[in-house]
Each structure stands twice: as structure tokens, then as C-alpha cells.
Amino acid sequence: KSKAQMFDADHMKVTFKDVAGLDEAKEEVEEVVDFLKNSKKYTDLGGKIPKGVLLVGPPGTGKTLLAKAVAGEAGVPFFSMSGSDFVEMFVGVGAARVRDLFKQAKEKAPCIIFIDEIDAIGRSRGKGSMPGSNDERENTLNSLLVEMDGFGTDSGVIILAATNRPDVLDSALLRAGRFDRQISIDKPDINGREQIFKVHLGPIKVDKSINPKELATQTPGFAGAELANVCNEAALIAARNNKPAVDMDDFMQAIDRVIGGLEKKNKIISPGE
Ligand code: ATP
Q1: Is the bond preceding 50 in cis, omega lying within 30 degrees of 0?
Q2: What is the per-residue pLDDT across 3-42, written as a single tens digit (0 to 9) for each?
């Protein structure tokens, strides 16, 4: 059985309103929403609707969120799977999962398939760093290529895939008719951070001294996921101190804590550097 998570159209409540900043990326994916909603308009004129769109950018910048919002805006089901879920030790499992995922998706079309960390299966063939597991990964990649070529552009299935390593992807994946479009999702600038704070401060009871712009100036280099984390940590810190509302002091502590967490994570990822 496929390990894909399936969300019905009724449960796709994420919309573009939930995605702060990323204005250019949103504009680009708006086209995808229209492809899903009005595919006939395009195919009647002989247009070929893209099958695959690659979302490229660092972790935590909202790629998954944006993909969900595309499904939410179009009112279609969302199938989600991580590239690493395809990679198994057992021969043939990855390829079978790919086939299964596409079979399910075609039955529910129009719909979105979202593949997070596509680089886990899409690394260029013959250059892998993990001996032994390579053939199996190549099989999985091949079956993904076969599935992508096997459905028509009018099938109503659009695949969004996310990566922060477009440079390692096999060029076969990027060829016309596959992931031939790329949208870059960058870390937010100060204005983007302010917008993201506005979204994530929404459910939080903040002191009236709290100003999203000021918070944005205090968080250079943070991705959206980290800003969301700051808001939640600040609320927890304030609550533990029995405060009636979250104030700037709590936010400053939360920012320190999130920076600390990031430093630890970096140490684990790159030992000895
Ligand atoms: P990864 O590559 O690590 O999977 P990602 O780019 O897919 O990361 P998301 O999973 O979409 O990032 O983001 C994690 C969470 O961070 C979101 O669920 C959301 O709460 C928050 N977030 C990230 N970016 C934004 C944004 N632009 N606007 C609002 N919230 C955001």
C-alpha cells in the first residue's frame, strides 16, 4: 500500500491567505489553480498543461504550505508523500509506492500530488553517496519518470515537488513534460517576516506593546517555520509565568530559544565543521 497521506477536498482548508509573503510564488501557482479548475479552457486550445512544478527553497519557507494552499484554492484533493518514504531497503517497494500513489491520484483527479524532499529519490543516477541502496533508488526514480510520462496532460493530476537541492536532481526529472517549471521560495525579507508574524500572531493573546514590524527586525535570517515557532514559544513562556498576555520580553526569550535550537540542529547535521 502507498504511504501517501490523502486529504479530501473538503479537508483542504489552507488557502493563499494562510501563506504570508511569497507574493511572486503565489502569483505563479495561481496559474496552477486555474489549470486544475478550468483544464478544458487550456486543452481546448491545444495547450499542454504542465505536469510537474518544482518548488525550490530552503527548509521551513512554506513550500508544503503553498502546495496545500493550491489544493485548497482549487478545491481538489491533496496527496502528500515525502521522497524519503519511497526509499526503502526492500527491493521494489519504492517503485510500487510510486505506482500506487499515481493510481490513487488518477482516480481522484483533478488533484495535487505533493512530493516533499524529491531529492531523496531524484538524485542524479550513478552519483549516489550511499552504496548498496543505489539501484533501489534508481528503480524508484525510473518508476516516477514512467508514471509521469504515462498520464496525459489532460488527466487533471498536477505534481508539485519540493527540494532545497535542485542542483543534485537528475536531469531526466527536469526535462520537458516532467518538472519543467521551477518556482523559487526564498527566506522572507523583513516585510515577509512582518506578514508571517501577522498570520501567526492571530491566535495568540498578545500585549498591546507587540508590533509585528519590530518582531521582524529582531529575526533576520529566520524562515517562516521558525517564526511560527517563535510565536508559539513566546505564548508558552508567558503562560508559564502566569502572564495575562504575551509581551516583548517573552518574544525575546522565544527568539533566543529558537536560535539555540537551530544552532544545535546545525551541529548535529554538520559534525566537525
Ligand atoms: P520543508 O522543506 O522543511 O518541508 P517547507 O518549506 O515545506 O519546509 P512548511 O512545512 O510549509 O515549510 O512550513 C512549516 C510551517 O511554517 C507552516 O506550516 C507554517 O506554519 C509556517 N510557515 C512557513 N512559511 C510560511 C509563510 N510564508 N506564511 C505563513 N506561515 C509559514
Answers
A1: no
A2: 677 777 667 789 999 999 999 999 999 999 999 999 999 9
CA of 64 to the centre of ligand 1 (A): 6
**CA 101, CA 116: separation in Å to the nearest integer?**
14
DSSP structural state of residue 123: B
**DSSP H or E run through 115:** strand 111-116
d(CA 208, CA 106): 50
Cβ neighbours of residue 133 under 8 Å, at least 6 residues apart?
A: 87, 89
The residues lining ligand 1, judged by C-beta closer than 6 Å to any ligand atom, are: 19-22, 59-65, 116, 162, 196, 199, 224-225, 228
Does the interface predicted TM-score (ipTM) exceed 0.85?
yes
Taking the C-alpha atoms of residue 184 and residue 204, their distance in angstroms, rounded to an integer, is 30
- Identify which of 13, 65, 201 to mutate to test ligand 1's pocket (most ligand atoms within 8 A of the CB): 65
